[in-house]
Amino acid sequence: MAIAALTSAGYSLCVDQNCYWNTHKFEHPPGTVHFDTVKDSRLWGPLRLYTKSSVLWWLPDPTPTLPTLDDPHYMLTDDKRLPPRTWPRRDLDGNLGPDGPWLNIYPVRIVKPILFTEALILLCCRDHNHVNNFEDYWRGLLGAMNEENPDPDFYLRKRVRPELQKCWNVAKVGNDLQINAAVKQLREELIASLPATPYYYGFRTKERAIRQGSRWL
């Protein structure tokens, strides 16, 4: 559905198996498919699409209709419940400003912030110590989910589901060794419910990893 919508909007799906983005390893997971949206996508990167089963395997599939206000999983990017940050934060261009609801562009469906935080914790557990090294990528995104405020106690306010809360608390105030230990412990507790990673040393398939001469687990 997403591929069809983007194609109908004028974006070109990349089908070149020798494309730069299909043959190189990166610090982020490769998309299932991608669209080269600019002339030189190596500078900005392509638009990547991921299967829901690779990143949000436990959530129900979104419906074609808009999420309601009481939807437990999804919301839109222009939802007024996404408030501006109360503590100044600079964006990549050095500007101070909020990153609350995006009101001036077409709204898209997103996972609710707490569920997105839970997703990143689970992805850290799934890819913990894997040779693909994507755990570092998930940890970086997890750090961005922190509620910024000068009060240290504020870091612990976001409430994820109980079995993930301890790991989330450590992720906000701990050092790398403490976070690693918390992720490892949680992985051991959840191992029966965690799927195998679909990523092999940064490539989309085992076959591609083998052809590139890379090791994978």
Question: Can you put this structure into words, describing what you see?
Answer:
The chain is mainly alpha-helical and 217 residues long. The chain has 2 domains: 1-50, no CATH class; 51-211, no CATH class. The protein has helices at residues 2-8, 20-23, 41-44, 52-55, 113-126, 135-144, 162-173, 176-190, 206-211, and strands at residues 33-35, 47-49, 74-76, 109-111. It has a two-stranded antiparallel ribbon with strand order 1-2. Helix 5 (113-126) packs antiparallel against helix 6 and helix 5 crosses helix 8 (176-190). The two termini are 32 Å apart. Mean pLDDT is 80; it is low at 212-217.
Number of separate strands: 4
Low-confidence stretches: 212-217
How far apart lie the N and C ends? 32 Å
Structural class: mainly alpha
Total of helices: 9
Helical coverage, percent range: 25-40%
- Amount of beta strand: 5-15%
The major sheet is characterized as: 2 strands, antiparallel
Mean pLDDT score: 80
Principal-axes geometry comes out as globular
Tally of domains: 2
Output the strand order for the largest sheet: 1-2
Order of helices and strands: HHEHEHEEHHHHH
Rg over CA atoms: 19 Å
Keywords:
2 domains, two-stranded antiparallel sheet, 9 helices, 217 residues, two-stranded antiparallel ribbon, mainly alpha, disordered C terminus
